[in-house]
Design brief:
With 285 residues, the protein is of the alpha+beta class. It has 2 domains: 125 residues, Roll (Diaminopimelate Epimerase, Chain A, domain 1), CATH 3.10.310; 132 residues, Roll (Diaminopimelate Epimerase, Chain A, domain 1). It is 20% helix and 37% strand. The protein has a 17-stranded mixed β-sheet that branches. The longest helix has 13 residues. The chain is globular, with a radius of gyration of 18 Å.
């Protein structure tokens, strides 16, 4: 019999409970089989469950309720938040994670957490791009108001003509799941000088760009706030707007703010987090 494992429910990219993106953070006592990890993630039924195992650096893996993923921002943010909040790390010590996307480092910046992630710049369409892709995207998203379409190693990035179009999206998730990507990032430039009245009160009165993220192929119809998507959004909007530092707002029902700063082939992602539940896994294996 083993001792119960600590597990936490954290709202990431959030300054108050019940906003942002919820993640579970589970501390492991030893290596566990993938089937066991996937079972816990399915039981938690959040967009991501992070599993932490101590070592030279914290070994970090991320699972949706359906699959393991290579990169996840909000569950990394949640993991760093718990390490500091629980006193496992000193407030001035960085949280360093060994992951499938390399070493990821998080630092505290007052009441914000800054994550150093790899940039995932979107590439222009290539000659071998599926010629039917645009039509499939229009069908899946239910709009023809697509002004650009790109991809990176993970996702498709789709720019829309306006915030009104972005907010009105009601995708066909079955069609989206058939597209050749982990997920679909939809984005538009934020309306200049206009309050985001259709989003939660925590939304900033002004920001640089808006987004929504859909990933039904990995068990997440719409993700509330997606850190890894901003690894692509940051270089995309930095090039278009001529600014290294930007503020993004993910305009899901829960909503969340992501600060981004482009640093060469890295992106600094800033967010806040709130612990909602502290508990234990009573699994005697």
């Amino acid at each position: 019999m083993t001792s119960p494992l600590q597990i936490f429910h954290v709202d990431a990219f959030a300054s108050r409970p019940f906003t942002g993106n919820p993640a579970a953070v589970c501390f492991l006592d030893r290596e566990r089989e993938d089937e066991w990890l996937q079972g816990v993630a399915a039981e938690m039924n959040l967009s991501e469950t992070a599993f932490l195992l101590p070592g030279q650096h914290w070994n970090l893996r991320w699972f949706t309720p359906a699959v393991e993923v290579d990169l996840c921002g909000h569950a990394t943010l949640a993991s760093a938040h718990i390490l500091w909040e629980a006193g496992i790390l000193a407030p001035t010590s960085p949280a360093v994670f060994s992951t499938k996307s390399g070493l990821l480092t998080c630092n505290r910046r007052a009441d914000w957490i800054e994550m150093d992630f790899p940039a995932e710049p979107p590439l222009p369409p290539s000659p071998d791009t599926d010629p039917t892709l645009l039509a499939r995207l229009q069908n899946a998203l239910g709009t023809r108001a697509i002004t650009a379409c790109h991809r990176n190693r993970l996702d498709l990035l789709v720019e829309l003509d306006s915030a009104a179009t972005l907010h009105a999206l009601s995708p066909d998730f079955a069609v989206l799941a058939s597209l050749p990507a982990r997920g679909i990032i939809t984005t538009c430039q934020a309306p200049s000088g206009t309050s985001l009245v259709t989003t939660p009160p925590s939304a900033p009165p002004a920001c640089d760009f808006l987004s929504r993220f859909f990933a039904p192929s990995v068990g997440i119809p719409e993700d509330p706030v997606t850190g890894s998507a901003h690894c692509s959004l940051a270089p995309y909007w930095s090039a278009k707007l001529g600014k290294e530092s930007l503020i993004g707002f993910q305009a899901s029902k829960r909503g969340g703010i992501v600060r981004t700063t482009l640093r060469g082939n890295r992106v600094l992602l800033g967010g806040q987090a709130v612990t909602v539940v502290t508990g234990q896994l009573n699994i005697k294996v």
